[in-house]
## 1
Amino acid sequence: MKRPIFALIDCNNFFVSCERIFRPDLEDKPVAVLSSNDGCVVARSNEVKALGIPMAAPAFKYREIFDRHSIVKFSANLELYGNMSRRITELLTTITPRIEVYSVDESFLDLSQLDIRDYTAWGDAVRESILRWTGLPVSIGIAPSKTLAKLASDRGKKQLSLGGVLSLVDNPQLDQHLSEVPVDNVWGIGWRLNPKLRAEGLNSALHLAQLRPQRAQQLMGIRGRQLVAELNGVCCFGLDLEHQKPKSIMRSRTFGEDTNQVGVVEAALASFATTAAFRLRRSNQLARRAGIFIDTNKHKSGFRRWSRETIYQVPTADTGQLISDVVALFSEVYNPRMSYHRAGVWLGDFMPADYLQTDLLGVVSPAAHDHSQARMLAVDTLNERFGKRTVHYAAEDLAQTWQPRHHIRSPRYTTNVAELPQVKIVP
DNA sequence: TCTGGGGTCCTAGGACCC
DNA sequence: TCTGGGGTCCTAGGACCC
């Protein structure tokens, strides 16, 4: 059996890079992308990072720095980023079908079946080809475990001399690299474990790698023990090819403005249920549980959250049913004296959609289930063909004021005909 | 005035059973 | 007063990720 070799392909400053493709004038300028409601900074160009603005920083706290340095801000344009992400995935799939799309801007490839002599040269070529075909700069890390590949891509990105590519396969400088990585930069070490490890005198990835397995488990649980093995080149986390099938689905938003209006919250919940149910059907699954939560502002005193859930004897992916159920759940907790700030709908406890027909026909009314399936198929087909929300449930239209603000979103250049980039030809 | 939105996995402890 | 031991399932919460 061949030993495992993984590559991590990681897009640099992904959201910012997507914006720059269509705005080449911003190439060396400080650029930041903001979350829903333009609340937090979710992507930063190198220039913005250098100004000391941290990830997830609340935008209003840094307004002065934004103004003083003329940082260019964008509201998140997730439709554009999703489309660019798919283009990269398509390219990578032509290299090998053994791909795990880990997040919108990262994919792992399993290289063990490929005949590659020089991993660094291979990485350079892939990097070059992604840049040429999509315009997006990436970093590539190659190693015998995913944890090391992750660490390698991060080194490749930050050490300019590496040109965006680092292979740690049989690399004599492995220990040197590990010793230069702070322990909290290791994949899996977060804010809670960091101080605990530092207190033990474990400050670098190399210190962590040298930990005895039993001690690692004592300090960090079973995942920590595996993490230490991974740092030593022993693969514990394989490629997750089932990654595409979600185990739970959540849709939530902070409202554009706080509200105590029952209709506004109902419209929001109906809208969340609609997109969550669509995602569920696309993954060909049915949910046995659905729930809602609703919050006041967590940054104000007296913060409260209410949640309710419902369990289905007969699993469902029916938008109409889910809407009426989440609205009913909300009526159990609604209080007109509250100022609601954020709400969400989640679906969980899934089963395969085909399973129901063969297995549960004794419990389910087959006709009702078939009608639901047919109805949803019709809705999804129409919306795919004629555009989102061509057909939708009226409950969504009760109000719009809950919708988040995104005043400074760029055009959806690649997915919306009305917003295509325009070219001026100067004679 | 103004602080995102989605996920996964692990563990501890309670309920329940024999 | 004293009041087993172990297994399984479920849930809530912790911790981490992007």
## 2
Amino acid sequence: MVNAALKLFSRHGVGGTSLQMIADEIGVTKGAVYHQYPTKDQIVLAAAEAELANVEQVVRNAEAWPPGRKAQGVLVEGIVDLAIARRREMGTILTDPVIADHFEGDAVFADVMHRLRRLMTGDESGPEARVRTATLIAAISGAVVHPFVAGLDDEVLRVELLRLARRFLGLPN
Amino acid sequence: MVNAALKLFSRHGVGGTSLQMIADEIGVTKGAVYHQYPTKDQIVLAAAEAELANVEQVVRNAEAWPPGRKAQGVLVEGIVDLAIARRREMGTILTDPVIADHFEGDAVFADVMHRLRRLMTGDESGPEARVRTATLIAAISGAVVHPFVAGLDDEVLRVELLRLARRFLGLPN
DNA sequence: GTCTATAGTGCGATAGAC
DNA sequence: GTCTATCGCACTATAGAC
């Protein structure tokens, strides 16, 4: 259900997705949808959190390594893989205005972003570190939905993106 | 009117913006809006094209220079300035699903993107060139709306983004 | 847990007065 | 060119049978 919602959100936007569309997508009626989630807002929230959980898992994997280049490499590889596996969905939670509103002031979102920045820039937290982190995330999650790469094979895209991201971070090859 | 629509689109998404909201924003009634545009689709199209025209102007400025590093520098500076001046609006035309649908197969959009890629990668047009171009555009237009940089001063953000973009392209300082 | 039925609201769009 | 008034429809949400 949450997955069906995310798929529709990323294809029509949150505002352009109705409960009827979600119900149709999973093959039930609106009433059944309302049984699980009392409001549309709750569905949006659940979908956004589910997608954020994927990012959190990638961050957690990278945190298993001691701080440094290896951890950064694991992080970048995880983000690239995630962005490719979910080309539209990942960008949606970062760019859709309705979901951005939901995450503004959200503690879990802030925590994941903070840990992500820490992995990439260590203890720096000034403007340079912030812009660098925001840029890398935006680059990867945004690039995968750009028309230029719409027709590219997943594996080709993966290799190119990884190369660019590693160079961006100053990591070996 | 087109500007009011773009502002609302970037704040609530295209699907989440009603004609009533647009009418209220510019201080008229729905009837007056319908006098200028026969359908909501036409408004969306006009708004998207207006924003695309800004990008086209930046590309045109860069094309005034002979192909090479100078042209690339002008291009990157123009894109960064545009993204900062219109932090939300520029990202909207690249990420909102409704607008992306409008641009899919659009000749003007394809032309601007083609010229942009040509400026950045010359005559190469393989996967590597495509991913590189898509990544740079996504990075800049996406980074400016990321929560990490929400509180940053425009000028600070501009300097950092320019530095990152230049390094990404292998341009001097 | 899924259904039908329906309330209440706001939507896109149209018609016609001024 | 802007207004009011209104149509038909789809929406979110609720109530209650099975």
## 3
Amino acid sequence: MTVPPSAYAESVLDLVELIPPGRVMSYGMIAEYLRDRTGRGSARTVGTVMARYGGGVPWHRVVSSVGRLPPGHEDAARGRLEAEGVPFRGRNVDLAAAQWWPDA
DNA sequence: GGGGTGACCCAGT
DNA sequence: TACTGGGCCACCC
């Protein structure tokens, strides 16, 4: 935390913290939501932000659009998600069942 | 001010 | 089913 996250990065982290246990959001969904709220961002940018500042939020609740887990952290993410009751489909998260969207 | 770097996404092969 | 190429955009040097 020697370096505070940028304004956009904070928006991403703030949203990720709202994701309830047992649910997940995809990078693309986060990007779309923040695009309405802040007017900027894209799936690619969200991924970059998570790679840099994801350590302070439940990063394991953020997956790709097909339920794929972040490279290099697949085992750690899988363990935490299973502990929260997130349904899996083979190696990936079952998005159809675990996908979440903020009410407001 | 210009260019490179990604924990991405989609469509086509 | 798995791989490739092009588009995408904030951040860092």
